[in-house]
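Quick review question:
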């Protein structure tokens, strides 16, 4: 029928409209799937990022834990030296000590190894392992006393300055006065405390190995006096407590003394043909009548005795 004026002819879409609707639906579904995939990836990446952050945090914190172990070791060396931190090497041995349980939290702590450089009491190796969760970090240093060496030279005059202070070891009983007249006295290697030493006449004090003597009073040696059969100065070390300011030390005669005497508050007199191989540390040191002192460099390897409060510091360039 012909179209009249004013009539609007409407053509039905037919099958094509259904096909277009289906295509749109597929695009929407695919778009949703892509969005879901991207969202899942974002969540996965977020979780991985969080795990990485936690791992980095634990590793950094483990380093701090290890450094805390080093700090405790240096504290123990100064204030608890008389307790003798067990010398344990790393790797290969159990730690010298561990952190107190729970000190750094439930999953954190440290283990520390401390040992001497072979033959050198003034150089210590410190290794600390800090652990946080599954992360473990290790730091290493070598340490020496800030105060230096007890025997840095042949003749050392302190002028009465007492630093550091030598304290008698706790639990070391006094053997009284060591008096030597016409009979030799032999001492086996070890550590001893005497109120004083007085040697006169033909008798001698004979030492056969490494010996440390703490003397609370005067030291008076005439004649041959003290015979160190090893002829090595580091095998005879004499410490005079530094809070005793009235001590007199006299070495007289023709003897040959091998050893070190550390008495920064005492006056030391070496008289006659007496020879000394080692080191003398006193408030003042006086030589007369041909007496001589020759420094033995091996005494540079001898450290301060246990109980001495020393500031142990990290040696420059030793941090690993």
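Suggested answer, residue by residue:
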């Amino acid at each position: 029928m012909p179209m009249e004026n004013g009539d609007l002819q409407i053509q039905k879409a037919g099958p094509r409209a259904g096909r277009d609707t289906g295509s749109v639906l597929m695009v929407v579904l695919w778009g949703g799937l892509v969005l879901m995939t991207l969202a899942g990836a974002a969540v996965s990446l977020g979780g991985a990022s969080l795990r990485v952050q936690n791992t980095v945090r634990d590793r950094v914190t483990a380093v701090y834990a290890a450094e805390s172990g080093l700090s405790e070791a240096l504290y123990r060396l100064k204030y608890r030296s008389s307790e003798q931190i067990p010398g344990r090497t790393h790797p290969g041995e159990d730690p010298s000590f561990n952190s107190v349980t729970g000190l750094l939290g439930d999953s954190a702590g440290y283990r520390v190894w401390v040992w001497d450089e072979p033959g050198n009491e003034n150089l210590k190796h410190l290794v600390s392992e800090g652990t946080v969760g599954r992360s473990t970090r290790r730091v290493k240093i070598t340490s020496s006393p800030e105060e230096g060496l007890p025997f840095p030279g042949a003749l050392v005059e302190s002028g009465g300055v007492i630093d550091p202070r030598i304290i008698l070891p706790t639990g070391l009983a006094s053997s009284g006065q060591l008096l030597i007249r016409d009979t030799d006295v032999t001492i086996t290697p070890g550590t001893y405390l005497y109120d004083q030493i007085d040697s006169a006449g033909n008798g001698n004090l004979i030492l056969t190995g490494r010996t440390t003597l703490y003397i609370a009073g005067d030291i008076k040696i005439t004649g041959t006096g003290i015979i160190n059969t090893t002829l090595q100065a580091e095998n005879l070390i004499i410490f005079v407590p530094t809070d005793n300011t009235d001590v007199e030390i006299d070495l007289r005669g023709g003897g040959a003394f091998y050893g070190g005497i550390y008495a920064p508050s005492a006056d030391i007199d070496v008289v006659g043909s007496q020879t000394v191989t080692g080191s003398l540390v006193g408030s003042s040191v006086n030589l007369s009548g041909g007496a001589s002192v020759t420094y033995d460099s091996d005494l540079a390897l001898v450290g301060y005795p246990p109980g001495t409060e020393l500031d142990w510091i990290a040696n420059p360039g030793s941090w690993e």
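Why it works: The chain has two domains: 21-149+311-320, 155-301. The chain is about 20% helix and 35% strand.
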